[in-house]
Amino acid sequence: MSGLAPRGGAAEARPGSTGRKWTMAELEQGTPLAPVPAGHTPLIKLRDLSRSFGSRQVLRGLTCDIYRGETFVVLGGSGSGKTTLLRHLMGLLQPPAGQLRIEATDRHPALDLGQADQDAMLVWRRRLGVVFQNAALLNSLTILENVGLPLIEVDRRPAPEVHERVCQALRKVYLKPEDILHLKPAELSGGMRKRAGIARALIHEPEIVLYDEPTTGLDPVTTTGVGSLISDLRDRLGVTGVVITHDLGMAFAIADRIAVLHRGRFIALGTPDEVRADENPVVRQLLTGSVDGPLTEGYA
Ligand SMILES: Nc1ncnc2c1ncn2[C@@H]1O[C@H](COP(=O)(O)OP(=O)(O)OP(=O)(O)O)[C@@H](O)[C@H]1O
Ligand SMILES: [Mg+2]
Q1: 288: CA distance to ligand 2 center in Å?
Q2: pLDDT band with cut points at 50, 70 and 90 for residue 17
Q3: Is 80 near ligand 1, meaning CB less than 6 Å away?
Q4: pTM: predicted TM-score of the whole model, two decimal places
Q5: 85 CA distance to ligand 1 middle (Å)
Q6: Domain residues of the chain, as ranges?
Q7: CATH class of the domain at 40-127+207-295
Q8: Which strands, in side-by-side order, build the sheet including 42-53?
Q9: Which of 64, 91, 108, 249 is the most buried (most CB within 10 A)?
Q10: Long-range contacts, 10-15 (Cβ 8 Å, 24+)
Q11: How far is the CA of 15 from the centre of ligand 2 (A)?
Q12: For residue 133, which atom of ligand 1 is closest to its CA?
């Protein structure tokens, strides 16, 4: 069982079980760190990760472990801090020392992202594939060059190999290489650009993939395909995935665990069944999509 156990106080005192209205503090209370279940190994450790922009506190003490080889889905309303969390994982925002650590693996030593130097950061970024919220393709390059970029610029692979691997990656996201290889991103539809962005994130077979809303704007069939691809990468290659999504169907289909981010804290974290049973009204509102609830209070 994860952080869904009663938090601070006897279960009978919780508002959900008494019909009493939840206070703001109760709605926003973070989940405690769960013990690591047998058979799991933490790869990424967040410890009280916080971030402010000016006077605005966006992350307010995120604590959790992300296990090696799991698909960890983050749900949360717009502006709750999801992309900000990913930007810390990518090393684009440096956390204070000790707040974000990567555990040692057979191939890499442990890493504290708050203290990593430039070389260590480069090694870390090569272990990552990133699917950006807006596809982030370079307008002046063709799809072949965009998707092949990590192989061309970083791995310096020969052109025929780049061509072959780009074609394979495009087919995985249901794009026909022969139709689009030599087009520029502006000549593709939004959904096609999104899929090309996913192909680029996967091209160098990364150990960890960060997905920022990978299916927003995609049709239902392609959405299911992207979900299967994420699960397939985990099952076949042991890829650890951190997936931000607003697509509840996909979240529950692919997640090993789900974390619900609200106002900079994880207010629920557990298996899909555990999160489905969570009584926090913010979680309930996110899962039902209701317009009535704490997320929309004060806007009428
Ligand atoms: N570089 C920045 N400077 C100032 N404020 C920022 C910066 N980056 C993010 N923010 C603020 O932090 C908050 C969280 O932003 P973030 O992009 O993490 O949200 P999100 O959960 O990804 O939302 P969405 O679902 O809409 O993508 C927002 O209020 C945003 O304005
Ligand atoms: Mg975002």
Answers
A1: 20
A2: low
A3: yes
A4: 0.89
A5: 9
A6: 40-127+207-295, 137-205
A7: alpha beta
A8: 56-67, 42-53, 100-102, 111-112
A9: 64
A10: 14/279
A11: 31
A12: 27
